Amino acid sequence: MKWLLVFTMGLILIVSSASAGIVGSKHDLSTSGAITDKSTDQDRVCVFCHTPHNANPAVPLWNREMSAATFTPYTGLDLDHTQWTSGTGPNEVSKLCLSCHDGTVAVNSLINNANPTMGSGNELDATGLLVSSANIGTDFSNDHPISFDYTQAQATDGELVDIATVKSTSNIEFFGSGQTNMECSSCHDVHEYGATADMQPFLNESKAASNLCLKCHVK
Ligand code: HEC
Ligand code: HEC
Ligand code: HEC
Ligand code: HEC
Fold first, then answer.
1. Which of 10, 34, 179, 201 is the residue whose CA sits 20 to 30 A from 100?
2. Does the beta carbon of 167 sit less than 6 angstroms from any atom of ligand 3?
């Protein structure tokens, strides 16, 4: 029977080394989550961001109150893309992240299902606002630019990898109707914290040896 034990343990290893997913990660705000101030009464993981009906915005079936803040864009040294003017941006897909990460909307402020009860005093304050270093605020003048057309920058900036190459050689994603906009989720995978330190926090590509940066920048 010893072989059976070895075989079973091997299977368990294979299963646990596969993609870890969102359950039990920092984006699992339910009772099974990884943060200290996780919910004390809601065991559903997806409900903090998604709902099957009456979602708003409709895509991707969003279940959260959105931020009403005005965001300041990164202005740059020598930018070859047009950035949003204060008040109009960022694009909606990045605003999904900002419905928690700008620190102005409580993480438990949901559209459907009663707002879950959260802990407080660590990552969250008593009203459910994100207060840890994960609160990146509304001023992005000191953050990597987002919410612009990558191909517009690439057309005049000789030191950017061709978008077709970025797409075919990496897990980096682009958004918008033409699938050319760079957003938070170009670099981040909201559902996967990363099995190894190089893939954390929630990265689409390893940051080892600046691999992530070199997927787009010819430097
Ligand atoms: C912390 C917020 C958050 C939680 C929790 C979350 N998602 Fe998402 N999900 C997003 C965002 C943001 C997008 C938009 C696409 C992107 O950013 O990559 C998305 C997109 C999706 C999509 C469409 C795109 C794709 O990746 O296939 C599916 C399907 C999805 N989520 C399923 C789920 C399920 C199932 C759960 C629960 C097990 C879940 N999500 C939990 C934030 C979340
Ligand atoms: C439902 C609220 C919510 C939404 C929506 C959300 N996050 Fe988070 N995020 C959190 C919380 C809570 C943490 C844990 C904060 C901590 O540990 O201090 C976190 C952590 C992170 C971290 C890791 C920070 C660290 O300190 O390890 C990253 C990166 C991140 N989020 C990116 C995103 C991106 C990108 C999106 C959109 C695609 C997004 N998040 C959407 C709530 C959210
Ligand atoms: C160009 C790629 C890129 C883009 C675009 C990007 N991030 Fe990040 N983000 C990273 C990397 C890489 C790290 C890890 C930094 C480190 O380990 O030094 C990170 C870290 C973070 C953290 C953890 C910060 C901390 O101090 O705890 C949060 C939260 C986060 N990102 C959210 C976002 C959100 C929200 C957006 C969109 C508004 C976004 N990111 C856009 C690459 C990116
Ligand atoms: C998905 C592609 C992509 C990734 C990944 C990426 N960048 Fe960028 N980055 C861009 C684009 C596009 C611009 C805007 C270029 C322009 O408009 O001229 C930019 C702008 C910048 C700028 C500002 C340039 C200026 O003129 O002010 C710096 C600095 C930078 N990136 C560094 C990094 C670093 C460091 C990383 C890794 C942590 C990284 N980037 C990851 C695409 C990317």
1. 179
2. no
